[in-house]
């Protein structure tokens, strides 16, 4: 508590305290071929507890509002992919345009532009000012916090060093800052690309022609046909490359298409699969099938291997839900057959696709989602969700 107060006093005076993030190896499996490449080793930077508490003290109000208003703030942080949330996202994209851009950045977090990170501090301070926090001390503290994370200090074994780009992955603000920087990147790119195309070079034009959603370094956009020849995945890739940012499509293909249909788009490693017709259409979120099957093939070292295996098998079945009943039944049949043939006494709940479907869509009738034939305009007053 004493350390938190000491550092907060420094922040409110405009002095950047020493906040050291501890680097450690990320506990994750990677392909064998990547193990031979040192640059593919994943690092996770742990935040000191006092910093986590202090950042929440000064910024939690914004974080809650930003996440809680999700799609209205063009982010999908915390989205529940199995259920109405995914349908709502689909409709907001599909009712705007059939031209979909979805991409992926390489090394996004480690190369995050420090200037953009600091601009996010200004955006957040404006939000606090608009919502009644006029404290100059709080404003100054938030500016200092973003100085701490934009040029963060790290310790790796016995080496202490400072970065000039990037965000500490273990910082409590990382996902939210990444999302906001992602939004800035796309807008800067739009202004840079359309500057040569005779399209108005302002953000009002962006709001008119683009509907963007992002989640950290992931993004998906719906773009009107009026500007798709000038603003598309290929022109984005070229623009970002000129700024030293590597941008590819979400499948990391060797050749990038200008845009795709929403049924072919991949966002958060999920696709959009429609079932039903008209306003009763449900949109499912099938996960890459390799991730579904991989879940059942590996487990963490555990004191109870049988129980851990059972949990993984159940989770694998649940992950296959978005692929539909036929694929779910196929995967469940394979897993159950493996259980019967094993010598271990593995007890797994007998899941049925219909039961899971009822569980996921239990409150669907209470959820208002704009009809498919309605075009949602930028800054539409109706947020798309109403609970009676």
From TrEMBL:
Single GO molecular function: RNA binding
Keyword tags: Hydrolase, Nucleotidyltransferase, Protease, RNA-directed RNA polymerase, Transferase
PROSITE patterns recorded: RDRP_SSRNA_POS
Source organism superkingdom: Eukaryota
Residues annotated as transmembrane: none
Annotated ranges, domain RdRp catalytic: 98-231
A biological process from GO: DNA biosynthetic process
Protein name listed in UniProt: Protease/RNA-dependent RNA polymerase
Species annotation: Hirondellea gigas
Phylogenetic lineage: Eukaryota, Metazoa, Ecdysozoa, Arthropoda, Crustacea
